[in-house]
UniProtKB/TrEMBL annotation:
<dbReference type="InterPro" id="IPR014016">
    <property type="entry name" value="UvrD-like_ATP-bd"/>
</dbReference>
<dbReference type="InterPro" id="IPR000212">
    <property type="entry name" value="DNA_helicase_UvrD/REP"/>
</dbReference>
<dbReference type="GO" id="GO:0043138">
    <property type="term" value="F:3'-5' DNA helicase activity"/>
</dbReference>
<feature type="binding site">
    <location>
        <begin position="227"/>
        <end position="234"/>
    </location>
    <ligand>
        <name>ATP</name>
    </ligand>
</feature>
<dbReference type="GO" id="GO:0016787">
    <property type="term" value="F:hydrolase activity"/>
</dbReference>
<protein>
    <submittedName>
        <fullName>Superfamily I DNA RNA helicase</fullName>
    </submittedName>
</protein>
<keyword id="KW-0378">Hydrolase</keyword>
<dbReference type="InterPro" id="IPR027785">
    <property type="entry name" value="UvrD-like_helicase_C"/>
</dbReference>
<dbReference type="InterPro" id="IPR048228">
    <property type="entry name" value="HelD_bacillota"/>
</dbReference>
<keyword id="KW-0547">Nucleotide-binding</keyword>
<keyword id="KW-0067">ATP-binding</keyword>
<dbReference type="InterPro" id="IPR027417">
    <property type="entry name" value="P-loop_NTPase"/>
</dbReference>
<feature type="domain" description="UvrD-like helicase ATP-binding">
    <location>
        <begin position="206"/>
        <end position="592"/>
    </location>
</feature>
<dbReference type="Pfam" id="PF00580">
    <property type="entry name" value="UvrD-helicase"/>
</dbReference>
<dbReference type="GO" id="GO:0005829">
    <property type="term" value="C:cytosol"/>
</dbReference>
<dbReference type="GO" id="GO:0000725">
    <property type="term" value="P:recombinational repair"/>
</dbReference>
<dbReference type="GO" id="GO:0005524">
    <property type="term" value="F:ATP binding"/>
</dbReference>
């Protein structure tokens, strides 16, 4: 019976592939003719632009003709692009057209639907449904029996009669299961048992119910996902992007979505998922890049730099100050400061070609002429408008200067054409005045830029003054030293990470700038690495965006040493007034059960973590002495590489990684990764654990998990993050004395090896 069913299913696969092949043949022909059409129009376009630009009438005619030709080219190119997209989509389906089937009874009719990564229709017949189609949610959410699914016209009730999963490779069904579960374990076992890749894969064939809730949420303003390591947070957010794009095709573009990711390696690692689903990648940024753009000319300390520094020294008072500056209350204090509106902001001269154009005094006077009780931001805006008005007056006076007329006569034809593009004039005089004005405006452009970009306001001095006005959490003298150090840093073009969001907030609130209303969705991965002030700032900077924050309070590598996370509860208070939804993911898919259970035991309060039922060896804890540490490690790497394609040696910081690399690479092909790397490789890699955030490797070796290196409770989160990067194998190498965090673990969770010469059996 089973064989018969499989045979029938294979025949259907063959039929669908044959239809796809045939459509692909047609597309090739259609692309060719579309391309010819584009070339023909472009050719005409080139001929039509050869016109006389000196006669006003000709110019106007040319403009209209050029616009029309441009539209024709755009339409032809779009036609070609649509065909090429379809071609790519079908090429993806060609070898594996679908992964699921549902049999659904609705209003007395029974329908059989096949679900894949894209829709494929043949003569009005849906041979494959896109996984994001409303009806496909049954596949992910429903167990057999009565089910509901949402459509644009309302909820529909149906009965799910059967659910079948397939693995199809090169057109052949290699596995097939009927399942009553959301998505059966057999399929997941097979997928998760595979070797890691240097690029993340999509999970659409095996999305789990809670992950599906994240993916298909369209109503929350702020979706917060607290998910244990390896629970699919990043995967869910990427499929969520694909889902949102599909559902708002006409109103939403990938460029209107931005994902804040932990580092470049990670950004690259995930960048193949959306294209594999036929979608463009959303924008990606790291927090460091975001700050670098907004503080041009300054170096903003990165999380990594700060972490490395903290390893050397972090006094209690610094911790207290940092906690204060990173809180939401600190931003509220800035609001209070601006509201009090006591002083005139710090203005600076606007210069042109080395000479003062508008002096700080003039700007100050304009500001002080505004109604005393107006809000600081309103006075600032009025000052800015007054400056623009004065600039325009200066331009009007300047056009009569000799240099302007000389500059006009030197304009080339094409410069003139660009200048006049789209403008119409009543008379030649009007046109001449317009041209002169443009010439002066060009020369004065730096002044306009300075006004427009608020360069006449010194936000750093203003921040310094704000710091001296607030109630401080430490002794006044310590606070004062900190303020001086911040200002001295700024003189040197250096900014501490904890000052970055507050300065931007102060600047934006006063100047009304820095806001991007075009972004519709912001996703923050590894939210536990962000301070509340930073998260709130992102909301402020992207006020129209719906937010998705994903993280794991237990993987708090960067801040656990000064601020244990209790994020989830705080978020509700800070983002009041928004529709906030919290989803927890407790099942961990990445690692084998023995590895997940080992990691779980490292933490306090970890009962919620559930291991996915995938078998494997217990982690090994190897203790060696300093002399033999390197040879022990080298043996271990050799041994692991016989079965695993990627072995990552994770150290606590970059200095340890560099040092290890210097010794190990002499006899072994190893790759050292640092913050500037973009690309993952297979083989043996060495990197600090914080750089491995979000990544995964077939085998992980934690190096120097010794009593000296992992001493305190705060190190638990680091060790947990480290362990949870492993898919199939985890080894921890301790020098002399294992960390107390390991010694405390139940001994049945790992294999202990004391041998120093031959650590692996
Ligand atoms: N439903 C699923 N089907 C198949 N694989 C899955 C599924 N969910 C998660 N995985 C796999 O589990 C691994 C971990 O997923 P992911 O990186 O998205 O988790 P995460 O919660 O972001 O992890 P971390 O916080 O530890 O970085 C990946 O290999 C991913 O492909």
């Amino acid at each position: 019976m089973k064989n018969k069913t499989k045979k029938a299913e294979q025949e259907r696969v063959n039929h669908v592939i044959q239809r796809i092949d045939s459509r692909l043949d047609d597309i090739v022909t259609q692309i060719e003719s579309a391309h010819q059409e584009t070339s023909r129009i472009e050719q005409d376009y080139g001929d039509n632009t050869k016109v006389n630009v000196f006669e006003v009438d000709d110019r106007m005619e040319t403009n209209a003709a050029v616009q029309q030709q441009k539209q024709m080219v755009a339409r032809a190119v779009e036609n070609e692009t649509i065909l090429k997209n379809e071609q790519q989509q079908l090429t993806r389906l060609q070898t594996s057209p679908y992964f699921g089937r549902i049999d659904v009874a609705e209003d007395g009719d029974t329908d059989t639907l096949y679900i894949g990564t894209a829709t494929f229709m043949d003569q009005n017949d849906f041979l494959v449904y896109d996984w994001r189609a409303p009806v496909a949610s049954i596949y992910y959410n429903g167990t057999l029996g009565p089910v509901n699914y949402d459509t644009p016209t309302g909820q529909i009730s149906a009965e799910l009669l059967n659910k079948r999963q397939f693995t199809i490779q090169d057109g052949k069904i290699t596995a097939m299961f009927d399942t009553n579960e959301t998505v059966g374990d057999e399929m997941l076992q097979a997928v998760l048992g595979e070797q890691s890749d240097t690029a993340m894969q999509n999970i659409v064939a095996t999305i789990q119910k809670e992950q599906n809730d994240i993916i298909r949420d369209t109503t929350s303003d702020l979706l917060v996902v607290q998910g244990v390591a390896g629970s699919g947070k990043t995967s869910a957010v990427l499929q969520r992007v694909a889902y949102l794009l599909y559902h708002s095709r006409s109103q939403l573009d990938a460029d209107q979505m931005v994902l804040f990711s932990p580092n470049q390696l990670f950004a690259n690692y995930i960048s193949a998922v959306l294209p594999s689903l036929g979608e463009k990648n959303m924008r990606q940024a790291t927090l460091a890049e975001f700050f670098a753009k907004r503080f041009s000319g300054l170096h903003v300390q990165t999380m990594f730099e700060r972490f490395e520094r903290d390893q050397i020294s972090l006094p209690e008072t610094t911790k207290t100050i940092r906690r204060f500056k990173e809180s939401h209350e600190f931003l509220t204090a800035i609001d209070g400061y601006l509201k009090a509106n006591r002083d005139t902001p710090f203005f600076v001269d606007i210069e042109l070609n080395g000479e003062v154009f508008f002096s700080a005094n003039t700007i100050t006077r304009i500001y002080q002429q505004q109604p005393k009780n107006a809000l600081a931001a309103d006075k600032f805006l009025a000052t800015k408008n007054a400056l623009i008005k004065r600039l325009n007056q200066r331009i009007g006076i300047e056009i009569h200067q000799d240099w302007v007329q000389e500059a006009v006569t030197l304009l080339s034809d094409s410069e003139l054409r660009d200048l006049l593009n789209g403008h119409h004039f009543e008379s030649g005089d009007d046109e001449a005045r317009f041209i002169s004005r443009q010439v002066v405006a060009d020369a004065f452009a730096p002044v306009y830029d300075a006004i427009y970009n608020d360069y006449f306001f010194d936000s750093y001095q203003e921040y310094g003054r704000f710091l001296t006005t607030i109630e401080t959490p430490v002794d006044a003298s310590i606070w004062q030293t900190m303020v001086e150090s911040v200002m001295a840093g700024l003189e040197q073009h250096q900014l501490n990470l904890d000052d970055a969001a507050p300065i931007l907030y102060l600047r934006d609130q006063l100047t009304g700038s820095g806001i991007n209303r075009g972004i519709q969705y912001v996703f923050v991965d590894e939210m536990q690495d962000y301070s509340m002030a930073q998260l709130f700032y992102l909301h402020h900077a992207f006020p129209r965006a719906k937010l998705t924050f994903l993280g794991d309070a237990k993987q708090d590598v960067f801040t656990s040493h000064y601020q244990p996370s209790d994020f989830i509860h705080e978020i509700g208070d800070v983002f009041k007034g928004m529709h906030v939804r919290l989803i927890e993911l407790n099942r961990s898919y990445r690692s084998t059960a023995p590895i997940t259970n080992f990691g779980k035991a490292l933490l306090d309060k970890s009962d919620h973590i559930q291991a996915f039922n995938r078998d494997g060896d217990k982690p090994q804890v190897i203790t060696t002495n300093r002399d033999q540490a390197i040879s022990t490690l080298a043996h271990l790497v050799d041994d692991l590489l016989t079965t695993q394609s990627t072995v990552a040696i994770l150290t606590k910081d970059q200095a340890a990684a560099n040092q290890l690399y210097a010794t190990l690479h002499v006899d072994q092909p190893v790759t050292l990764l640092n913050l500037n790397d973009h690309q993952l490789k297979t083989g043996c890699l060495i990197l600090p654990v914080y750089l491995a955030k979000g990544l995964e490797f077939d085998a992980v070796i934690g190096y120097d998990i010794s009593a000296d290196t992992y001493q305190s409770d705060a190190d638990r989160d680091i060790l947990y993050t480290l362990s949870s990067r492993a898919l199939h194998s985890l080894s921890l190498v301790c020098i002399d004395q294992p960390s107390p965090l390991l010694v405390d673990l139940p001994s049945d969770l790992y294999t202990e090896i004391k041998s120093v010469t031959s650590p692996v059996q």
